[in-house]
Amino acid sequence: MIRLPDDAPFTAEQRLWLEDFLSKALAGAAIPSAPGGPAVPATILWGSQTGNAEGLARKLVKRLKKGNFEPESFDMADYDRDRLPKESNVLIITSTYGDGEPPDNAADFYEWILSDEAPKLEGVSYSVLALGDTDYPDFCKCGIDIDERFAALGAKRIVDRIDCDVDFDDEFKQWYEGIISVLAPEVQVMPAQVDALDQTEEGYSKHRLFPSRILRNFNLNKGGARETHHVELSLEGSGLEYEVGDALGLMPANPPEVVDEILANLPFKTDTDVPLPDGTEGPLREALIRSYDIGTINKSIITKWQPRSGSPFLRALVEADDMEAYEEFVWGRDLIDLVCDHPADFSDGEDFVGVLKRLQPRLYSIASSPNAHPGEVHLCAGIVRYETHGRKRGGICTTYLADRAEGEQPGVYVHSNKAFRLPGSGDTPIIMVGPGTGIAPFRAFLEERRISGAKGGNWLLFGNPHRETDFLYEEELTAFQKDGTLQKLDLAWSRDQKDKVYVQHLMLQQGGEMWKWLQDGASFYVCGDASRMAKDVDSALHMIAEKHGGMGAEEAEAFVKQLKKDKRYQRDVY
To answer: Which of 70, 132, 321, 338 is the most exposed place for a label (fewest CB within 10 A)?
Structure first.
């Protein structure tokens, strides 16, 4: 019988279970993966914009297969809706993006389930895991809407919906363990430590970042008000691999001068150690620079802050519970504003960091082809600087890259984005719409198409305020044109003339030609701002289908939906 060390971090019950498990495993004894009896069916539906929900769906399938379940997993876009009223157990994992919108692959399902066409769901049991970001006002809206609609249609919740912030691992585990305990209570759930080991990934990942050397870091703009950095990072020795269309997660560090101002205004001794998100401890100052988010405040932080503060304003804000009032207050403010303008009586550093969110890596669309730059990954980052409420501020990660990254080795990981991929055939023409830093993945696409010898045509629509200062990658795009890689390049300079011109205007001007490319099988790609640009581009695409395809509004809508279903209309929007 194996005996664990006395200082092993397990309870007595966990220790006995694990000692027995390991003893049997090493002895070659059979360990049943599922108890007897009929297997429990589970249909998993996922809606994913950048791959998080899809990744959790895969993990859920893996976990359920270890118990007495028969799981099936479906992209919401590919799911046969006629099955839904006949399902026994439906497990839904979906994100929300933009202004509370469903992911592209979930849009049709979302519209259908909320419509009068949705069937009654008596006899269906379900549960929802909603992914979102508390920094956005419509936090988890897609998951919330689907959850409430299923209930209204007569379905029965297995366990209550869980709304996850960007750090969702613990909530995911809580959710699926709750489902297992209800649907298959005879399945023994492993102790937390063992289950955590089961979920670890080999190599570098979001949970184990690779310290990457910065090879080059420079401003692409030629003067002017804008600042856009091209950043080249080494992946040598990491084992990390990526495809064009993927994103890179990069961990920033907060501005030390802001941290020092926060520390100077706290009501307790600050030269102490505090708990860190990874379970260790460290100095408070370093924790605020490297481990905790000081760049955003939201409703969650304010509701935790208010009881410790004597601020009448915060008390009124929390008691009113008005989302518009919250949004108006947090806009343009950071943690420093709470510390200085609404001081709170925290007892010590541990009490203080207990209200803060973990500092998260930021995702950037990768701007390079791995075949063109072996062992490297390139980014294109627009540096965000602004002034509000009497303070100069900036994006935490973008100002880190511009001002504080020299000599650093930022932690990185590759975030796979299977929903943004080049066509399987190099003969397929592609249309790319990417204003501003939205050009990033299309630089990667063009590098990959050139190096692979793809024969399909390439058309790029790019825009920025001024041609003289803001023509990102001008020399490279000119070279792509000269060697025949880039057949069409249309440019929109919004501030170089009286009337503003954007990429959607270029689409309409070139509508006839664009329709011909689409009829010839072209795939259509968009990268950039979700709330404005992407919506305007989508509207222009519908208008082109109506005008040049001779379609009515409903036919044009069906045409665009089919493009998405066929994966010929893909978006990397944020």
So the answer is: 321
Q: Are 340 and 265 in contact (CB under 8 A)?
A: yes
Structure tokens at 404: 């504080």
Instruction: Give yes or no for a contact between 229 and 402, defined as CB atoms under 8 angstroms apart.
Output: yes
Distances (CA, A) of 113 to 41, 99, 151, 152: 22, 19, 11, 11
Who has greater pLDDT, 138 or 536?
Answer: 536
Say which residue the tokens 């503003």 belong to. Answer: 500
Domain ranges of the chain: 1-31, 34-199, 210-251+361-415, 256-353, 430-573
Closest by CA position to 242, among listed 219, 217, 212, 218 = 212
- The CATH number of 34-199 is 3.40.50.360
Domain 210-251+361-415 class, CATH top level: mainly beta
Least confident of 25-29, 130-134, 222-226, 340-344: 25-29
Domains 210-251+361-415 and 430-573 share a fold: no
Does residue 363 sit in helix, strand or coil? strand
Q: Count Cβ atoms below 10 Å from residue 197 Cβ, excluding itself.
A: 10
Residues with Cβ within 8 Å of residue 435, at least 6 apart in sequence:
461, 462, 463, 464, 492, 502, 503, 528, 533
pLDDT in tens, 23-58: 554 554 333 344 456 899 999 999 998 889 999 999
Give me the torsion for CA of 98, 99, 101, 103, rounded to 10°.
Answer: 10
Q: Which residue has the tokens 């091209």?
A: 230
Q: CB burial class (10 A; 0-12, 13-18, 19+) of residue 284?
A: buried
Mean pLDDT for 79-84 is: 97
The CATH homologous superfamily for domain 256-353 is NADPH-cytochrome p450 Reductase; Chain A, domain 3 (1.20.990.10)
Find tokens 């809706």 and name the residue: 81
Residue 478 has pLDDT above 90, yes or no: yes
pLDDT at 158 over 90: yes
Q: How confident is the model at residue 17 (pLDDT cuts 50, 70, 90)?
A: low
